[in-house]
Amino acid sequence: MAEAAVLPGTAVPRRWWSPHSGPALLAAAPLLFLLVFFLYPVFRLMLLSVEGGTTAHFEKALTDGLYVAVLLRTLEIAAYVTVLCLVLGYPFAYFLATATPFWATIGFVFLLLPFWTSILVRTYAWMVILGRNGIINRFLLDTGLVSDPIPMLNNLAGVLVGMVHVLLPYAVFPLYSAIRRVDPGLLLAAEGLGASGWQVFRRVFFPLTLPGVLAGSSLVFILSAGFFITPALLGGGRVIMVAVLIEKQVRELLNWGFAAALSIVLLGAVLFVYFLLRRLMRSELEWS
Amino acid sequence: MRPGILKAAFAVTALLGSSLVFAQNEPPKPDKIVINDSGGDMQATMRKVFYSEFEKRYGIRVVNTSPVDLGKLRAMVQSGNVEWTVTEIGGEDAQRAEESGLLEKLDLSIIDLSKFPKHLQNRQYVFPKSVYSTVMGYRTDVFPEGKRPKSWADFWDVERFPGPRTMRNAPYDNLEFALLADGVPPEKLYPLDVDRAFRKLDQIKKHVTVWWTTGAQSAQLLVDKEAVLGTAWNGRYYSAIKQGAPIAIEWNGGSIKESAFAIPKGAKDAYWGQKFLALATDAKLQGLYADIIGYPGLNLEAINYTDPKVAPYLPTHPDNLSKQYWVDIAWWNKNAAAMNERWQRWMLQN
Q: B interface toward A at CB cutoff 8 Å?
């Protein structure tokens, strides 16, 4: 930025460099990085899935009851996680955006500390808390509130708790920046025109934060659709997500063609949901 | 001074001479080799026993990496960028690795297998590092003396042995355990009657509260009392027992197999990989290794260097060995893909 500020003052005209080409040049490095380390591997993956000119892998991934069921289940779990993250993340982001600096700092510490801790460590910590003999069940049993331990681990509930814990920051950050951007003047204006508190929120505040909602929910949805270790450990084996099946094909069975096909199908499904979500939100924006 | 100089000159020539001879026989020493193993306790023990000895003997640093990953091995060999000099390979995967051409041939003029069991002495690609067994374990406070489960039939008997169970989230071993529970004699296990095995597994399914994924999980579930009866690799129970957990191992019907090491095809410094495997045949080191971690090596003389107190915890102890069956790796290699798929399908039904 400092360089760009100096440049207009320099006498030597450089045709390849204008103050406007700065952003494009800045984007070039990450774009190149993505091209080499993301797009090219995805392209190779596509090639791998149709290796030998056969579409058999795709046929199997799209017609075999097992893989279809697991794919749908994966999207379903990702949807649950997304909704939970938004419901928990929105008020929290609002708190962070409006609290005094002191409380906002405390809030960020609570958000970031787990974010910087290894997923594996956090997953094992949930085992200690939620287990049959875990802290919560111990307390409930000792106080006589329940007579049998409540199953909170090794089922869908455990997986959701673990995944929401890991993914919550990805929802909070975009929401936070969207909420920060809302012009308080607009809210005052709405109030001045006679809108109730709920109307201000529903008609003015919430629509203005929709870009944050979209960004947060798509981040969380995309990340949770590919989740692997948390469902494997907290689901007790019963909660099967596509990534678990892909890992098995890659590491154990060495059937990379089929693993690639499964990955592409997952990618396609996630992209489909993402565009659907964008469509929905855009019409919501226009409606407001 | 003079004799001193002479002596020094002699020493230098001798040194030069010997290093020349050396150079003819031996490729130059790299400054490090990379050995990939399954990490955790096992890596710590490997370091204490084998890696440090190798470093001392040859002056080559051993860098260790983990985890064991067949997919990564294949990626390395195919891309021609092999990082590992030696790697561990899981018991179920060794044959697949060999058949897929991922391994360098063992140099049996360097690696001396003459003290190993006869059937292992002409190994071509896969070095038989040690053996391990998937065994039944249970909480001794829940099942005290006189009320202990003694067979897979008992494991399946939820009336007499109530409580949550844990098993591995994979078809390996579990199909055999189901058939043994259903009364199939061990010598008639293979080829597995898969339909019968899954029918038997149906009976136990709702009593298995956790299907474990990682080795660390398996024993911890019993330690935390998340389950009172379970399966795990014997060394996992052994270290929990050593730390005082009220757990006992039942060897009856244990699923014994080899844990293998091998040199990836195209490994740099493969010669020093051979040298490392040669060192891993040492009876004394194998005895020490078994003492610490409960996984015995296959040098038949290693038992002489193992603490007699540890011997009952080893799958190769004669009393234990006679109660277990050897996994038929060839059968599994042929059927692994189909069995894994069927296992997931079975998991999805409720």
A: 69-72, 74, 92-93, 96, 100, 164, 169, 209-214, 217, 224-226, 336-337, 340-341, 344-345, 347-348
